[in-house]
Amino acid sequence: MAKDKPRKALQELLQRPGNQLCADCSAPEPDWASHTLGVFICLNCSGIHRNIPQVSKVKSVRLDSWDDVQVEFMAANGNNVAKARYESKIPPFYYKPTFPDCQLLREQWIRAKYERKEFIYTEKQEPYSAGYREGLLWKRGRDNGQFLSRKFVLSEREGALKYFNKNDAKEPKAIMKIEHLNATFQPSKIGNPHGLQITYLKDNSTRNIFVYHEDGKETVDWFNAIRAARFHYLQVAFPGASDVDLVPKLSRNYLKEGYMEKTGPKQTEGFKKRWFTMDDRRLMYFKDPLDAFARGEVFIGSKENSYKVLEGLPPSTQGNHWQYGITIVTPDRKFLFACETESDQQEWITAFQKVISRPMLPQEYAVEAHFKHKP
């Protein structure tokens, strides 16, 4: 019975406001705890805490034995108290990961909070908040697919991220305007746990570059430095906007990615397998997931502007190997796609519906007008 008493007390503590979600990634029903930090966490985050034993010692709320002193410490702290302490000075642009995010983001967030105490001491935020950053990243070559070390420079003052093919090169190989920059973690696609995909617009077409750093902290610092630069750019571009309005625009994950088959504008050509990426209203297709440039891009507008998505293909369609069709209707033409499985088809339809059901913003009309679809 004595053993049950601490467990019962812990179960009650889990019902307190703040303790019902993981302190680090907001996963529901956390059943682990750090008895040195006083936080309730999920199984995944407990694994990361185990890697910093000098800061955090973890136990299962249900399976391990607890003594009264440890339970009292948990009662005196808890997730809300810890948040007030360890997250008191988070810059608005800093990306706070949640449970669907990749391992690297969650690990560096936990280390930043408890090990490095970056959100207690603002001077520790220099690597991503200074407005200028330079360093070496491994970048995938456009033609041969090899990763080579390249110098990158991010400058808010110049409004650009640049990279150089040689450290002493005077001229950059590419200048990416902060205005059109996006960064998203793509570990499985790139084949590296620290893999980051950076995209920018070149002549109104999307250009991808794929980078990583051996040190996970460096990669995450670059990611947050890009978000900081975008935040300060948007503050100037939209002087009346609040942080709440701007933060969702700093970086974006793709709505959906994967293989589909497509046919050309005449719809008599054979269907070809392509890698598709749905990035906001741009549906891009590539021969290979790691291509630098899309073979083509399709603008997906809103239902008010006569865009719609239909399940299936027109009855006369031929040449598709995959059975699960999708038709996208735009004011100019129909686009025909085919998916390998029904679940793929339904996921793509859901992603398209999400975009089509959202009214277009004034600046999106300009994008639509500029949009040069490559057939």
Automatic annotation (TrEMBL):
InterPro entries in the cross-refs: Arf-GAP_dual-PH_domain, ARFGAP/RecO, ArfGAP_dom, ArfGAP_dom_sf, PH-like_dom_sf, PH1_ADAP, PH2_ADAP, PH_domain
Entry keyword Zinc-finger: yes
Listed PANTHER family: ARF-GAP WITH DUAL PH DOMAIN-CONTAINING PROTEIN 1, ARF-GAP WITH DUAL PH DOMAIN-CONTAINING PROTEIN 1-LIKE PROTEIN
GO terms of molecular function: GTPase activator activity; phosphatidylinositol bisphosphate binding; phosphatidylinositol-3,4,5-trisphosphate binding; zinc ion binding
Chief location bin: cytoplasm
PROSITE patterns in the cross-refs: ARFGAP, PH_DOMAIN
Keywords on record: Cytoplasm, GTPase activation, Metal-binding, Repeat, Zinc, Zinc-finger
Organism this protein belongs to: Chrysemys picta bellii (Western painted turtle)
Pfam families linked to this entry: ArfGap (PF01412), PH (PF00169)
Stated name of the protein: ArfGAP with dual PH domains 1
SUPFAM superfamilies: ArfGap/RecO-like zinc finger (SSF57863), PH domain-like (SSF50729)
Coiled coil location: none
